Amino acid sequence: RTKVKIYPNPSTGIVHLIFPENKRITEILIYDLQGRMVSRFIPKQGRSSRKSVMDLKNLKKGVYVVEVKMAQGMTRQKLILE
Predict the structure, then answer these.
(1) Does the global pTM surpass 0.85?
(2) N or C: which end of the chain has fewer CB within 10 A?
(3) What does the pLDDT average to over 37-52?
(4) Cβ atoms of residues 81 and 10 within 8 Å
(5) What HEC string does 62-73 produce?
(6) How far apart are CA 12 and CA 56, in angstroms?
């Protein structure tokens, strides 16, 4: 299972992600607990594609699911916004 590091968690809105080496990230989707997609990011590909920053300040405080889709597979993790 591929692990993506998400920090800080809990967050106040600016979230950093670090991806495993040799994994091409195709998109990052944010879902609320009702399963509705509330945000979508397409990370830039390149030399520094192991890191991405998301601005989620427009979302309400609460618990979200971050779904990271890769060229091969995907991973989901919970994120708390305060």
Answers:
(1) yes
(2) N
(3) 80
(4) yes
(5) EEEEEEEEECCC
(6) 8
